[in-house]
Specification:
It is a single chain. This protein is of the alpha/beta class. The protein folds into 2 domains: 322 residues, Metallo-dependent phosphatases (Purple Acid Phosphatase, chain A, domain 2); 198 residues, 5'-Nucleotidase, C-terminal domain (5'-nucleotidase,  domain 2). Helix content is 30%, strand content 25%. β23 and β24 form a beta hairpin. α12 packs across α17. The longest helix is centred in the middle third of the chain and has 19 residues. The N terminus is likely disordered.
């Protein structure tokens, strides 16, 4: 069965390049991951950069800079006689007004022009259901692969998502395998017809099949996160290199704040080192890993470093013009000033997925304020739903939409105190993985500890009643406000879907609620107040 599945899932792509004979075989891998629709350049907060900062050289990334650097490095490396592939480890969808406006069409156009060799499916490629991913696949000119998802019963995706491809470069065959985070049904919206298989189970069979076919150079392009990539490297023999995404991890030997070296090395079951790379997110870096195999397919060397796409990289002129053209229809909305902030509002991923953060307080406060006259006492917002920070000074609608790009609506429902505690337990259960389910709250205080096992980490929960904090009553029924994604069970909040009573999921858009709240506040002062504490 493995062989039959493998055969059905293989895409063979041959790229004609000058063949250079070496005793060993060398390949340069240019890679990006988690662009998240940052088609325009970004500022230091990872949100869209404005014209003033661009003029002052303070911006990074943007698809036009990515185009410049990929073209430059591919040309330079090929001139040196090296073989080159360009891979995308997923999550092109979601994160800016370009996705809100154009869905995947703009990404497909720009990636086609760049000349991507292969892309992994990311979890956010399912944010608008299988149909949106199918539309994206139909417009791209390169394979989009993922091996541990079964789409055979989905009418939109059936037959459109291979699990494996074989690239021929410089006279050698390179096998590419791929896997997607198994909890995508909780973090996105793939629907009931897409089934997820344990990554290790799939990859072992896929690698065996490639090796049986005589392919001895195998690269995994995954969207699993660094910790899962390390587990895969340690348990699956035959994978030579892993190019990953999903956890937005910066691996580097030179950049300040890097989470580890580039590459990270993990020993596989045969005692061989497997290099793992990832290049942060949002197009700020282009990864470049140079690898060398001997004639028998043994990896001899893996070295490189991500390239920072700062102001020293001149944006591709044609791409910059096209970006401006596509941006024109949404500039009026983006530019609308809806309020101001006395300082930057921290919505950084590292902050909002691990503890109380300023953006979490702003959004949760705005949600609770909107429905406080409906008997609602508690607001819970997933940290992963907050996608950027906001600069100090004037706040535009564009900035709010960049923070909250998912078009979620306000959901109100009733929940027993015991189920509120269960929801918080879910929220803090995967902090070590940087999961987006971390609960930002209002009208509620809680303490938690990472020292205990998931499911028993919440140590104290209090609710604001009559101007005072009181211990939550497990049997009492409370009014809760969240977003419709979480209310439907997203990010593991199954208790909202199963136990929520008198639910109404069709409130105003979350971005409109926050914009209105900021408008009412005038000059907003970002803050944290200890509503979430770690013990």
């Amino acid at each position: 069965m493995r062989k039959r599945f493998l055969t059905a899932a293989v895409v063979s792509v041959t790229v004609a390049l000058p063949t250079v004979v070496y005793a060993d075989y060398s390949l340069s891998i240019l890679h990006l991951n988690d662009l998240h629709s940052r088609i325009e350049s970004i500022n230091k907060y990872d949100s869209t950069c404005d014209a003033e900062d661009e003029a002052e050289g303070k911006c990074f990334g943007g698809i036009a800079r990515m185009k410049t650097m990929i073209d430059q490095r591919r040309s330079e490396l090929e001139a040196e006689g090296r073989n080159v592939i360009v891979v995308d480890a997923g999550d092109q969808f979601q994160g800016s007004l370009f996705y809100t406006t154009y869905k995947g069409d703009a990404a497909a156009e720009f990636l086609n022009g760049i000349g991507i060799d292969v892309m992994a499916v990311g979890n956010h490629e399912f944010d608008d259901g299988p149909e949106a991913l199918a539309n994206f696949i139909g417009k791209t000119e390169f394979p989009i692969i993922s091996g541990n998802i079964d789409v055979s019963t989905d009418p939109a995706l059936k037959g459109k998502v291979p699990g494996i491809m074989i690239l021929e470069k410089g006279g050698e065959k390179v096998g590419i395998v791929s896997a997607l985070a198994e909890d995508t049904s909780e973090t996105s919206s793939p629907g009931d017809s897409v089934r997820f298989i344990q990554a290790e189970d799939y990859l072992k069979g896929a690698v065996d099949g490639l090796e049986a076919a005589g392919v001895n150079k195998i690269i995994a392009v995954t969207h699993m996160g660094l910790s899962r990539d390390m587990e895969i490297a340690a348990s699956v023999s035959g994978i030579d290199v892993i190019v990953g995404g999903h956890s937005h991890t910066l691996l580097s030997n030179t950049q300040e704040g890097a989470s580890g070296p580039y590459p990270v090395l993990v020993t596989n079951p045969e005692g061989k080192d497997v290099p793992i790379v990832q290049a942060y997110a949002y197009g700020k870096f282009l990864g470049e890993l140079d690898v060398t195999w001997d004639d028998d397919g043994n990896l001899l060397k893996a070295e490189g470093e991500p390239i920072l796409l700062d102001a020293s990289v001149t944006p591709d002129e044609g791409y910059a013009a096209r970006v401006a053209e596509l941006a024109a229809p949404i500039e009026e909305l983006k530019a609308k000033v809806i309020g101001s902030s006395e300082a930057a509002i921290d919505g950084d991923r590292a902050s909002c997925r691990a503890g109380e953060c300023q953006m979490g307080n702003l959004v949760a406060d705005a949600m609770l304020d909107r429905v406080k006259d409906q008997g609602v006492q508690i607001a819970i917002q997933n940290g992963g739903g907050l996608r950027s920070s906001i600069d100090g000074g004037e706040v535009t609608m564009g900035e709010v939409l960049t923070v909250l790009p998912f078009q979620n609506t306000l959901s109100t429902f009733q929940l027993k105190g015991a189920d509120v505690i269960a929801a918080l337990e879910n929220g803090v259960s995967q902090v070590e993985e940087g999961a987006g389910r971390f609960p930002q709250v209002a009208g509620l205080k809680y303490s938690w500890t990472p020292k205990k096992d998931p499911g028993s980490r919440i140590t104290l929960v209090e609710v604001m009643e009559d101007g005072a904090w009181v211990a939550i009553d497990p049997e009492k029924i409370y009014g809760v406000v969240s977003n419709n994604y979480m209310r439907g069970g997203g990010d593991g909040y199954k208790v909202f879907a199963d136990s929520g009573m008198n639910a109404y999921d069709y409130g105003p858009g979350l971005e409109a609620v926050v914009a209105d709240y900021l408008a009412e506040k005038g000059a907003y002062a970002p803050y944290t107040d200890g509503r979430i504490t770690e013990q």
